[in-house]
Amino acid sequence: MAQDSIAVVDLDRCQPDRCNYECSNYCPPNRTGKECIVTREAAHDEGEPFEGEPDQIQISEEICLGETCGICVEKCPFDAIEIINLPQELEEDATHRYGENSFALYGLPIPEKGKVTGLLGPNGIGKSTAVKVLSGEITPNLGDFEDPPSWDEVIDQFRGTELQDYLQGVRDGDIEVARKPQYVDQIPEQFGGETRQLLESADERGVVDEIAERLSITPVLDQDIDSLSGGELQRVALAATLVQDADFYFVDELTPYLDIGQRVAAARLVRELAEEQNRAVLVVEHDLAVLDLLADSIHVAYGRPSAYGVVTDPKSTKKGINEYLRGYLDNENMRIRPEAIEFEQHAPRPVSEADTLVDYPDMSKSYGEGEFSLDVEGGSINRNEVLGVVGPNGIGKSTFAKLLAGGLEPDEGDVDLGLDIAYKPQYVEADQPMRVDAFLSSITDEFGTSYWNTEIAQPLQLERIMEQNLPDLSGGERQRVAIAATLSKDADLYLLDEPSAHLDVEQRVLATRAIRRYAENHEATVMVIDHDIYMIDLLADRLMVFDGEPAEYGHASPPQEMRSGMNEFLANLDVTFRRDENLGRPRINKPGSQKDEQQKREGEYYYT
Ligand code: ADP
Ligand code: ADP
Ligand code: SF4
């Protein structure tokens, strides 16, 4: 029988010298003389070496009354405790638990030869933990961290399932693993030198040149790693993984910093590796249009981030994504979100009487002879609107923003806009040794007001990270802080470059809502550059489309309504979307399929 509740103590937050053990003083079992909440030292076996702070607390899950009590959770001034009733439907024991009152993982994804398996779930839900188990880096303890079982006992637990053979391979050291890390920004710190050297040192399959060509990174092979942009690093990291000769490939996010063309090219390459080389690939991906294209089947991971995570049995990709969006898992009989995520089946109605923020004229800008040049068709931007901006990387989107801001003079076109622009760049750096709350309060006087908390801090889930230092934040946390900082400024126009990067699906939806509400309530105008087509659909009132030849020349169309904008953009890419019959979710059509050809004939690429 699996246990029915777990207690999780965040040891980074538990600070007994500042609270006088409010938790244990009020814990009902403690008050009747039981030892439910004790110090870690008291719970500790004598003679064993001690790691960490002995005076921090430990909670006995056997004695604890569970979530309905929750008194300690309320009493702890540092939000260090979580008491969570596990879903009753969860029949199994944990696969792995890091220790007393630590994160617990239930279930495992099943890698399959010749297939791409997706893993869809929030950050902090145990995806990397699962991969460490599958790669043999962690021997799973089945929840018994005090007296861990042997590999044979673990395999026994999975006997008769598809994982048995695989885990035997892991035990015998027969499984070679190649892995692309989530945060590619850190690669230059770990590896100096030329890109080609990095790739060749990993190249066990002898395919560097071919893969570099497919990912369009040939031009940067002779550049130093530390000179690459985020989008280039992402593709180099993927290449360095795919050139290895492994049984099991793990790709932790494929899409951050890539434009749609690059996303689709990368997805095709990963599929080919699985199909043609008969390898097992597991991908974590939050861009659902790309996951749909990429995976043969998916596991959904749900639970409570940083407390526990459950990996479901595999589902068909279509069913899994639909259930995830609907917020309800059928087989598991489990609600994972109060409401469904819904898309516009029909383009939003054009706004009739919009108040104009700015009219800008035709403009052109070249960075010099033989350098990049941009042509902008004049247009207008409305007050209170969220304007989606789409187009490949290197096509002049930031150049356009600088023209509006007056930081850059056009060669042609008479502008004196001087708009005050608040800008969130694509790559968010946060290396000042400063706490999140100090950083944000240095930006706005509204910091901490109930208005700011409701409009910014809550939807961007900042409360739990306020006391952390900027350099310690994960990529998703850093992204949310950067969005908050940008929206908190006083400006005419807010420009967000790829706010979706490193956010999980849930966080994308919340950030979308925060941005939209902010625009509406603040009479703010927001331009959002993003390559996640779902996010653009959820977010934008109108669309501005860039096309051309990246790094050579770019052309910007005036802002237009969503339907014509999507049609123009997707026609450039030669990609059409159909609607899933159940949920109206947009799905990429197979090139050359009947639907694809019909929609192209009719010129309806997205809203059919
Ligand atoms: P994901 O990959 O889904 O973001 P992870 O598997 O990295 O999630 O982490 C899940 C949880 O496990 C996190 O709360 C993390 O803090 C915790 N965790 C990871 N490694 C350890 C460890 N060695 N000891 C204790 N807790 C850990
Ligand atoms: P996007 O925002 O669409 O990715 P950018 O406007 O940043 O595109 O850049 C468009 C092109 O102009 C890129 O090839 C970039 O390398 C080049 N570029 C940007 N700034 C300069 C500059 N100051 N001097 C020369 N080239 C530049
Ligand atoms: Fe004690 Fe459990 Fe109640 Fe916390 S939730 S006060 S540990 S019984």
What does this structure look like?
- The chain contains 21 helices and 28 strands.
- It is an alpha/beta fold and 608 residues long.
- It has 4 domains: 5-85, Alpha-Beta Plaits (2-Layer Sandwich); 116-335, P-loop containing nucleotide triphosphate hydrolases (Rossmann fold), CATH 3.40.50; 371-561, 3-Layer(aba) Sandwich (Rossmann fold); 574-608, no CATH class.
- β11 and β12 (308-311) form a beta hairpin.
- The model has no long low-confidence stretch (mean pLDDT 91).
- The protein binds adenosine-5'-diphosphate (ADP) (2 copies) and iron/sulfur cluster.
- One adenosine-5'-diphosphate binds at residues 98, 102-103, 123-129, 306.
Highlighted features:
608 residues; alpha/beta; Alpha-Beta Plaits; Rossmann fold; 4 domains; binds adenosine-5'-diphosphate
Structure summarized in a few sentences:
The protein has 608 residues and is an alpha/beta fold. It has 21 helices and 28 strands. Strands 5, 6, 7, 8, 9, 10, 11, 12 and 13 form a nine-stranded mixed sheet that branches.
